[in-house]
Amino acid sequence: MRFVTKTIHAYLDYPVAALLMGMPFLLHLGSSQPLAKWLSVVTGVAALVLTVFTDHKLGVIRVLPYSVHLAVDFLVGVVFVIAPFALGFRGLDAMFYWANAAAVLTVVSLHKPEALPQAAMA
């Protein structure tokens, strides 16, 4: 049931980074805790940098293995689950992070491993 390929993931990365940077302003996040706005913005900038340096179809400077990218995405998902509790986010601030955590962790868990070349399996 895993269907999110490396290419699909690559096409998701840039819009997700942009949304992480822009949505906190559109949703007026930060009412329960100002950090609720800025954690997402900083994460969006980091996601953009990570995407630029990832070895996948839309990477610009392909120096980071895709497996590292997936590990960072997983850690972001975990941080987004914990952040509302640890940082006192409430209401829309908390829901924003939990919804993003669910999306990120779902995409990572649906990652379709790439087939190994025939020579590697011999």
The global form is elongated
Largest sheet: none
Q: How far apart are the termini?
A: 26 Å
Helix content: 55-70%
Beta content: under 5%
Count of alpha/pi helices? 5
Please give the number of β-strands.
0
Question: Which residue ranges are poorly predicted, with pLDDT under 50 across at least 5 consecutive positions?
Answer: none
Q: What's the alpha carbon Rg, rounded to whole Å? A: 16 Å
Structural class: mainly alpha
Mean pLDDT: 94
- Domain count: the total is 1
Order of helices and strands: HHHHH
Question: What does this entry look like structurally?
Answer:
This protein has about 120 residues and is mainly α. It has one domain. The chain has 5 helices and no strands. It has helices at about 5-25, 35-55, 65-85, 90-110, 120. α1 packs antiparallel against α2 (about 35-55) and α3 packs antiparallel against α4. The longest helix is centred in the middle third of the chain and has 22 residues, at about 65-85. The radius of gyration is 16 Å and the shape is elongated. The relative contact order is 0.18.
Features:
5 helices, elongated, 0% strand, single chain, 122 residues, mainly alpha
How is this structure best summarized?
Helices cover 69% and strands 0% of the residues.
Secondary structure layout:
Elements: H1 6-26, H2 35-53, H3 66-87, H4 92-109, H5 118-121
Helix pairs in contact: 1-2, 2-3, 3-4
